[in-house]
Each structure stands twice: as structure tokens, then as C-alpha cells.
Amino acid sequence: MQTKELTHYSSSLGKDMHMMIYGSGGAPFLAFPTQDAMCRQFEEFGVIDQIRDYIDDGRIQLFVVDTVDKESWSARDADKEWRALRQEQYYRYIVEQVIPLMREQNDALPFTMGMSMGADHAAITFLRRPELFRGMLALSGVYDADYFFDGFMNAVLYENSPERFLPNLPEDHPYIGLYNQKKIIFCVGQGAWEEDGVRTLRHLQRTFESKGIHAWCDFWGYDVNHDWPWWFKQIRYFMPFLLDE
Fold it and tell me: ∠ CA(137), CA(237), CA(136), 5° rounding?
């Protein structure tokens, strides 16, 4: 399996960032690590081993990015306006720098994916710019800015909070038709540590239904915990659907 690490300066974030690339072709996936983690997490925690056959066969190519969660979503003691701005800077880094870097390696339309906080990033990026992606896979996210910001909201954080901006999407907004051309998958277990994921995905599901957005919101069993073994199973379960296999 071809593996490559890219180090590049982010003008949006004002620092060097890193990206791991696994594979040499196939459907590209922009992959976000879990909360506070960095680009080698998928390799270190076994995700790459779980989907090695897809990578080795040239069916997918994975692009795993760094996060700045410690400066934004996780920085509970920091100024909330600054934290929201840092998330917006990260979003701009992904859209303005990471996507073009991916295109240099693979010009196919990518999917976006992630687990836990990575699912939040996948959802934010896809739902704000669906024209850039073929679809998305979000596992065990908590799609509620209040959960991280204790009720704070401003215009910047609003743009990074799908549970806020989606309900206000006009019925004739062109993104609704665009969403329905894509493959949108949200999944959450109903076991340990998944309570907030279930609550917030139920809310998103109601919004999707009211807007006529065809998103697959899948709620797994009460034995399905917020943990890696289940995410491995979910990735394997949904991958054939994403790839039309």
C-alpha cells in the first residue's frame, strides 16, 4: 500500500498542518480523526487495517487530516468567539487548501467521513459545500453546538452548526436538490456514550424529513457503543453502498 505524508503551511490557520494519504487511486475520502486527534490516528487505531483491501485493490484512497479541535471545540476555558473563529478558519483551510491538495493527487469527486468529532467535521464540510463532494459518512457525531459551547451562539458558529442552519434553509434552496444527488449517511449506536449522538441525530433526521432531504439516518442497537470496534463494523457495512458495489 502506498503511504505518503504531506506537510504544508496553512495560511488560514497560520501554522504547518499535515495530511496522510493511503493508496494510489480509487474513490477519494477526506477523513477527519476523532476529537483532538491528528492525521496518523486512522493508522494508529487500526482503521487503515480494517479497510486495507479497499485501499490495496485501488477502490478507495484515504486522505486523513490534522485537527485543531483543542483550539476550538475542546477549548472550554478559552474565549468562545475566538473558538468559533478558529473553527471557521479550520473549515476554510479544508475547503481552500486541503481539497485542492487532494485534487492534485486524485481529481475524482471525494467523499467526506469521520467518527465522533470527525463526524461533526464531515457533516459541517459536506453540508456547507455539497458541490465539492460525492457524499458523506458520519458515525457517532454530536451535532449540537450547545454541547460544546454551553449555549453560546454567534454568526460564525451558526455557519458551523448544521442543527441551526439547516432548519432555516429555504424550501427552494438549490442545496436541497444538490443534497439529493449525493449519498448522505449518518449512523449512531444506542449503547454506552451514544446518548447525545442519538438525541442530536434525531433532531437532524426531523430536519431532513421536513426539508425533503434524502439522508440515511441509521440507529444501531442498544449494544452498540461509542467505540472503535463498532465504527470498524459500520465502515465495512456502509462502504459498499457508498461505492455502489
Answer: 10
pTM higher than the cut 0.70: yes
Q: Residue 94 has what DSSP assignment?
A: I
Q: What value does the mean pLDDT take over residues 138-167? A: 96
CA pair distance 112, 136, nearest whole angstrom? 5
Residue 234 CB contacts under 8 Å (≥ 6 apart), including other chains: 139, 187, 220
The answer to whether residues 117 and 67 touch, using CB atoms and an 8 Å cutoff, is yes
What is the mean predicted confidence (pLDDT) over 90-106? Answer: 97
**Cell numbers given for 4:** 505518503
Tell which CATH classification among 3.20.20.140, 3.40.50.1820, 3.30.70.20, 1.10.10.10 matches the domain 3-242.
Answer: 3.40.50.1820
Whole-angstrom Cα distance, residue 65 to residue 1?
A: 18
Q: What is the pLDDT of residues 21-67, one digit of tens each?
A: 999 999 999 999 999 999 999 999 999 999 999 999 999 999 999 99
Mean pLDDT for the stretch of residues 166-174: 95
Task: Report the candidate in 214, 153, 167, 150 with the shortest Cα–Cα distance to residue 186.
Answer: 214
Domain boundaries, the chain: 3-242
